[in-house]
Design brief:
about 50 residues; single chain; about 70% helix; elongated; mainly alpha
Length: about 50
């Protein structure tokens, strides 16, 4: 997880800001899905998103 995202997530948890936690969680899964190539070898979808 990038440090900037980790910092924002920690801040949101400390403030108990559920809306921000949910938003950052969605950002993390979006980021992670774009960074990790598919296991079946088909990375054409990843290259079209750039």
């Amino acid at each position: 997880m990038p440090q900037w995202l980790c910092n924002q997530m920690m801040r949101a948890f400390l403030k108990k800001d559920r809306r921000q936690i949910k938003l950052l969680n969605e950002c993390w899964y979006f980021y992670r899905n774009r960074q990790i190539p598919k296991t079946d070898g088909d990375s054409s979808e990843l290259t079209t998103l750039h």
